[in-house]
């Protein structure tokens, strides 16, 4: 009797005693039946192992895409933060320790910066804004603050609406004097 030709894996399994020659013949016969059925009827036999391997490969591809998307988003955030920092540092208005205090709210806490009188007025009237960097707070002109706000809304802490001087005849409080030393 002719001995069936075995592939190397089958030979190893047979040699180690994990399978028998009858089982090898049965597997080969089933494989021949599937091939014949596929040839004659054009029916494709679904192989569970191949199907699960393909699904695992597709899942791995999706995971890789998601990781790449997250990595790219993190790099974009880093580049955006670097742009904001560079724009802010190039256009900042100097603060003085001995100037007037300007208090503002950031993350439900009252913060204070000390600025010259003209800078304080600019902050109040919307001609300047305050930008939060990791190192602290910087004051920039309003145009620069708007550019930064376009990149990241949360970076600009204070940017008041530009106020127009109210006409004297329309001002109901025009008759009342405002004290010069009044500080809010």
Task: Walk me through what this model shows.
The structure is a single chain. The chain is α+β, with helices and mostly antiparallel strands and 184 residues long. It has a domain at 53-166. It is 51% helix and 16% strand. It has five helices and five strands, in the order αααββαββαβ. The chain has helices at 8-16, 21-41, 48-91, 117-125, 142-151, and strands spanning 100-106, 109-115, 128-133, 136-141, 156-159. A three-stranded antiparallel β-sheet has the order 4-3-5. The chain has a two-stranded antiparallel sheet with strand order 1-2. A hairpin with a 2-residue loop joins strand 1 (100-106) and strand 2. Helix 3 runs antiparallel to helix 5 (142-151). The protein is rod-shaped, with a radius of gyration of 38 Å.
Summarize this, please?
With 184 residues, the protein is α+β, with helices and mostly antiparallel strands.
Q: Could you name the key traits of this structure?
A:
5 helices; coiled coil; 184 residues; DUF2058; Nucleoprotein/polynucleotide-associated enzyme; 16% strand; two-stranded antiparallel ribbon; alpha+beta; 3-stranded antiparallel β-sheet; 51% helix
Please give the structural blueprint.
Layout: H1 8-16, H2 21-41, H3 48-91, E1 100-106, E2 109-115, H4 117-125, E3 128-133, E4 136-141, H5 142-151, E5 156-159
Antiparallel strand pairs: 1-2, 3-4, 3-5
Helix pairs in contact: 3-5
């Amino acid at each position: 009797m002719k001995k069936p030709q075995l592939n190397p894996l089958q030979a190893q399994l047979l040699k180690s005693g994990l399978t028998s020659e009858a089982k090898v013949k049965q597997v080969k016969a089933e494989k021949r039946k599937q091939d014949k059925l596929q040839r004659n009827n054009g029916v494709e036999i679904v192989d569970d192992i191949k199907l699960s391997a393909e699904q695992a490969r597709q899942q791995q591809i999706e995971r890789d895409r998601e990781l790449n998307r997250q990595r790219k988003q993190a790099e974009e955030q880093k580049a955006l933060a670097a742009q904001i920092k560079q724009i802010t540092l190039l256009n900042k208005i100097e603060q003085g320790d001995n100037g007037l205090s300007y208090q503002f709210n950031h993350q439900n806490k009252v913060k204070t910066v000390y600025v010259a009188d003209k800078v304080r007025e600019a902050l109040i009237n919307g001609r300047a804004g305050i930008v939060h960097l990791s190192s602290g707070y910087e004051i920039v002109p309003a145009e620069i603050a708007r550019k930064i706000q376009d990149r990241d809304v949360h970076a600009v802490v204070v940017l008041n609406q530009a106020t127009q001087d109210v006409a004297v005849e329309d001002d109901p409080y025009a008759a009342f004097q405002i004290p010069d030393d009044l500080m809010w």
